[in-house]
Amino acid sequence: MTGAKRKKKSMLWSKMHTVHCEDIKQWCRRRLPILEWAPCYNLKENLLPDTVSGIMLAVQQVTQGLAFAILSSVHPVFGLYGSLFPAIIYAIFGMGRHVATGTFALTSLISANAVERLVPQSSQNLTTQNNSSLLGLSDFEVQRIGVAAAVSFLGGVIQVAMFVLHLGSATFLLTEPVISAMTTGAATHVVTSQVKYLLGIKIPYISGPLGFFYIYAYVFENIKSVQLEALLLSSLSIVVLVLVKELNEQFQRKIKVVLPVDLVLIIAASFACYCTNMESVYGLEVVGHIPKGIPPPRVPPMNVLSAVVTEAFGVALVGYVASLALAQGSAKKFKYSVDDNQELLAHGLSNVIPSFFFCIPSAAAMGRTAGLYSTGAKTQVACLISCIFILIVIYVIGPLLYWLPMCVLASIIVVGLKGMLIQFRDLKKYWNVDKIDWGIWVSTYIFTICFAANVGLLFGVVCTIAIVIGRFPRAKTLSIRNMKEMEFKVKTETDDETMHQVRIISINNPLVFLNVKKFHTDLKNIIQRENAASHPLDDISKCQKNSTLKSALFRLSRGLCSKDASQACLTEKWSLILDCSGLTFYDYSGVSMLVEVYMDCKGTNMDVSLANCTDSLIKAMKYYGNLDSETPIFFESVSAAISNIYSNKSLNKLSDHTEV
C-alpha cells in the first residue's frame, strides 16, 4: 500500500514538474521574442539583405545619434552610445521586425528641457573645468549626461510599470489622427531647433509655452547676423539630399544597392572643412572632439529623479506611442502580429538598461523604419549588424568626425524628418473621410507646436474621448451586441450538386476606434467557428493556431478538408454580406477596418457585399480604399445583395455552358 502511494505521489510530482517547465518555456518565448525567430533564421535568404540594411542603418544611427545628442544638450559622443545599446535590448525583447530603436528627436527635445533647467549653460563657468575620469570630458558635460540618463532611467521605469499593469491594452485610445498630428508637430519643433545651425545664428535656449514662436521672433530680429557660409552649405546639402533620395525612390526597383548619400555627404563635407579650415577661416561650427571607446557603466544620479518626473512621463508616453505606431505599421505591412504590452516592456528596458551606459532617452524613428523597408531588411538581425558598425565608429572612426560642419548635420536631420512632415497631406484624407477627425488633427497639431509633444498627445486623447462620448448617446443603439449570423444554402442545377453558402453578418453598433479591434476579433471568431463546423476534427487544431482574419477567410473560401471529404469541399462556394443597417456612425478607424476586411476577403477570392450603407459611408470607403467601381459591392438591402450573388452565379453558369 505504501509503495502504491509513493508511486502515485511521484507520478503527480513529475506531472506538476512537466507542466511547470512547459509554462516557463512558454513565458520565455512570449517575453523574449528572439527565442521565436532566431532559431528559424534563414541564413541563405535573409543574411544578405539584413547585412545591406544594417550598413545603411548604421549610417543613419550615427548621424542621428550625433545630432540628437546635441538636440538633447549633451556631448555628441553620448548619441553614439544611445544608438548602440537600445538597439541591442530591443532586438532581444521587441516584436517589430523593422523597428530600429535608438536616439529619437522627440524624446531628445523633452530631455533637453530637464538638462537645460538643472544644468544650464550659464553654470559652465561656475563648474570646475578639470577633466573628469569619464573619457576626459569636463565635469559640466558629465553633469549634463547624468540628468539625461536619469530621464531615460525614470522614463523606462514608468514604461515597465505600465507593462506590469497591462496598460498596453489602452493603446486603442491613441487614434491615427492623434498620433499623426503629434508626430508632425514634434517634427516641426525639431526643424525649429535646427534653424540656428542651418543659419549659423547663436540662439539662446528657449522653451516653454509658445517657445516655438519666440524662436522665430528672435531669428527675424537678428536676421542680419545670419552666417552666409553656413546658409549656403545648408542649402546645398538639403538640395543634394532631397534630389538623391528622390532618385533612390524612383529607381529603387532597378538598382540593387541604394546610394548612401548621408554617408557620402558626411565624408565630403568633413574633408572639405578640414582642407579649407572652415572652422578658423569662416567661423563655421563643427561637431568637435569625439573621444574613443565606451566608459564603464555607472548608476544614473538618483538625487535628480524627483526633479525630472515631468520629462520622464513625457519620454515614456511620447516615445512609446511613436514607436508602437511604427511597430503596428510594420506588422500590418508584413502580415505578423505585435503585442502592445510586450512593446512596453521592450522599450522600457531599452531605456532603463542603457541609462547605466550614459545613453539619452531612446525610441523608434520613422526615418530608420522607412530605411529598413527600402533596403529590404527581413529581421532584427539588420539592427544587430548595424550595432557592429556603430562600435567601429565609436572605437576607430569617431575622432575623424571632428570636422563635420553642424549645418550639414542639421540638414541631414531636417531631410530625415520628411516622412513626418509630409503627414500634412493626411489632412485631405481626414476631411474626405471624417471631418471630426480632421478637426482633431488640426487642434492636436496646434497644441503640440504651442506647448509640447506630450501636451498635444494628452489633448488629442482627451478630445477624442470627449467627442466619442458625445456622439454615442445620439446612436440608435447604445448596447454593443454580438453580431448576428444567418446562413442560406441554395442548391444549383449543375451536374455536380454544389452548395453556395452565404454568411450575413449584421453590425449592430457604431464602428469607431474604441471597438474596431473587437469587431475584427468577433468576425475572426465567426469565421473560425465556421471552419470548425465545416471541416474534420483533424483540421480544427490547424485553424485555431492561425490567428489572422485573412487566413481564416482563406480556409473558409478554399476549404481545409481531409482526403475523404475533398470532393465535397472543392465544390463549396462562399459569400459574405455585411449588413450595415446598425452602423449608425463611424470614424476613420472604422472605415479603415471595413476596407481592410473587404481587401482580405477579396484577396481570398471570396465574394463580399455591403448592404444598407449610408451615402456618407459609401463615399468614405470609396475614397479611402480606391474601391473598384466596376464590381458593385454596395447594395440597398440584404435581399438585393443576395439577388446579385445569385444572378452572378447564373451568369457564370451560362458562360461555362457557352464555352462548352
From TrEMBL:
Q: Name one GO molecular function term.
A: chloride:bicarbonate antiporter activity
Coarse class of the primary localization is: membrane
Instruction: Quote the InterPro entries the UniProt record gives.
Output: SLC26A/SulP_dom, SLC26A/SulP_fam, STAS_dom, STAS_dom_sf
- Domain of life assignment: Eukaryota
Keyword Transmembrane helix set for record? yes
Q: Name one Pfam family in it.
A: Sulfate_transp
Name the keywords, alphabetized.
Anion exchange, Cell membrane, Endosome, Ion transport, Membrane, Transmembrane, Transmembrane helix, Transport
One Gene Ontology biological process: sulfate transmembrane transport
Q: Which residues form the STAS domain?
A: 492-645
Q: Which SUPFAM superfamilies match?
A: SpoIIaa-like (SSF52091)
What does the UniProt entry say about where the protein is found? Apical cell membrane; Basolateral cell membrane; Lateral cell membrane; Recycling endosome membrane
- Catalytic activity reported: hydrogencarbonate(in) + chloride(out) = hydrogencarbonate(out) + chloride(in); chloride(in) = chloride(out); oxalate(in) = oxalate(out); sulfate(in) = sulfate(out)
| One GO term describing the cellular component | apical plasma membrane
Organism per entry: Octodon degus (Degu)
Family as reported in the entry's similarity comment: Belongs to the SLC26A/SulP transporter (TC 2.A.53) family.
List membrane-spanning regions.
66-93, 145-165, 203-220, 226-245, 257-284, 304-327, 348-367, 379-397, 402-424, 444-469
Q: What is this protein called?
A: Anion exchange transporter
Annotated membrane topology is:
Multi-pass membrane protein
